[in-house]
Amino acid sequence: MKLKLALAMLPAIAAAGLMLSGASAQQKVQKIGYIADLSGPMQDNYGPIVEGFEFYTKELNARGGIDGAQVQVLVRDDQLDATRASSLALELATSEAVNSIWGMSQTRTHLAVYQTAARNRIPAVAMFSGIKEVLPPNPLPFAYSAGHVFEVAGEVSGKLAAKMMNGKGKAICNSIEAPGGVAACQYAEGAAQAGGLQTGTVLFPPTVTEFGAIAQRMLAMEPTIVIAHAGSGQNVGLIKALRGAGFNGPILMGSHGLNEAPLINALQGVGSLDKLQIVSRFASPDSPGKELDAIRAAAAKYGKTTPIATTTIMGWALATLMEASLRQCGYPCAGDKLNAVLENIKVDMGALMGGPIRFSPTDHYGTSWWRVYQYNAGNKKFEPASEWLEASSTPTLRKQ
Amino acid sequence: MEARASASWDQNWGKLGLLPLPAPRGGERGRSNLPPIHPSISPDCALVAAFALTVVASWGIYALLGLGIVLVYRTSRILNIAGGEIAMFIGYVGALAVADGLPFPIAVALAIAAAMALGVAIFWLAIRRVMGEPPHVGLILTVGIGTILNGLMIVLFGGGMVAIPTGLPAFTTIGAVRLPTPDVVAAVGAWLCVAIIALAYRLTNLGLQMRAVAERVMLSAQRGLNVDRTLALSWMIGILAIGLAGILHGERALIALSASVIGVSALIACLIGGMDSIKGVVLAALIVALTENFTALYLDPRYVLIAPVVILLLILIVRPWGLFGTVEELRRV
Asked: How near does any CA of chain B get to the CA of A2, in Å?
């Protein structure tokens, strides 16, 4: 009897199995790629950006994904190596058949990823600092950037320095001797000169970590304001050395991927920090707003134990752009179709940024908005000290 | 959102609140910002004084790191070119301890213990096995040790740039002179360590044993000296010196993967001074520190890492064994 029952059940079991496997085959997934330096020298900067991106994606999938398709982010680690980044982009585009690549590391890896992505006809969207010369509207289709562009950041910082000093005094820009740093200081000097300041630049090798004599050199140039476009860690060394050498004037830092908490901790006990400012394209981690609340809630939900940083916000903002573009593209979304969407996209960023991310066929960077944050020694936080200031994607004030 | 963002710079500038800043005191330019060492000292003198302290601190750190390299070279004839990585590894230990809330002195004690353990481990696990092999084998081994430490720093500590705050006030007043505390701590700490290690090498039994092994290893063994133990202790002290240099560099500047370049500066000092000469490395560390800092202040900071190499090349052309190094004969069998 039992055997008969079992035999009778077999077709039903088989049918149920087939239905289940069919359902699993119909599980819709939209694969996207993400490349960044996650174990190399800049992992401190990129780790929180990926984290913010993944927090957003988890929340997006929890809301049902895109047209019922779950968004699967395939994260790859380029270790800040251009060759490796290019290979990873190729692997993502071919083996994994992603329809886009997001994130990306510094300028040195941007071009490699952009070119590989373009050859495979999938868009690549950077969120970290890059140089305009390797970005569209120069001839690179499928390439976009929603992050800091060094020339724009330089020009904005120079304009701000001139405003802060009422057009009187001398601005000294400093950065590492790398294309991005050099470009930032060229435009910072140009803009500061246009605003009435005298200017100078001090460049140093990327590996320098002791800034005593470099700070003294800057002081000997008689600055009234210092503009810093070095990396986050080097800024700590520079500020320490400048304050130690007795410079009590304002120091305006370009925020090229900033983790506030480690910076603030490292700066305790180095002298007066009451004239320390950051100029950034993004909201600060302590800003109000429903988007910021959502990041903080997601960070708590997914077990983040350290405070969110500007870099976390950058990742969340990039993922906001990702969702908007995939929604407009629909499911399934091929690279060509997504590229067409990105070329005409405008996404409101709410409180995350000063304005929307907007790309056009002739401008894959778009207008940006910048804000000054002033360090408050009382609560050890950077607080907004200006409204959002608009900047064109085509800076013009390069130092001649 | 767009309406909020579309205001012009001048419109928005009115809402800045904290900005613009008041005009600088003392005129249009920032001379008033130069180091307020003493009212009677002119800004230029102040700059020279600050520069002198910077050089003394760098000199002390390079001398201490170089001393660690020379000590192990003298006893084991192995050129340890992983000095920079070892310094940063121990520096990260100290930085992590401070970040976890330990007071600076406790963090330093912890880092010292880590350095001594690392020194003994490097000797027993690696160096001891290549003793007596051609010199290049030991050298390549230290390259491997440096690479491993580099990877460990990324995995264990994140590889970012971190400082080691002491918790002390930003400035130290000595008489009428006000100086940056990190440089004072680095200079005093480094020279104290150099003096203690050099005197111990000269005056203690252990130092005598290390010198005996350095000069006649076979004879030392025949006279009952435990050569392995002596070599292990010399590596322990050598790595300790290197680790202390790393901690002081982190206290004064930054701990970072890229900061292992201080090992290159110290190695250049060793080569200029002579690989087996303690007084040579101390003197040559001054040459390196002065060259680097002079280049940064008066020439161009972009060449700060190249300038000492030029000096090294010039000295090697004239004296390949360094200023105070011993000319060693090649023995061929």
From this structure: 59
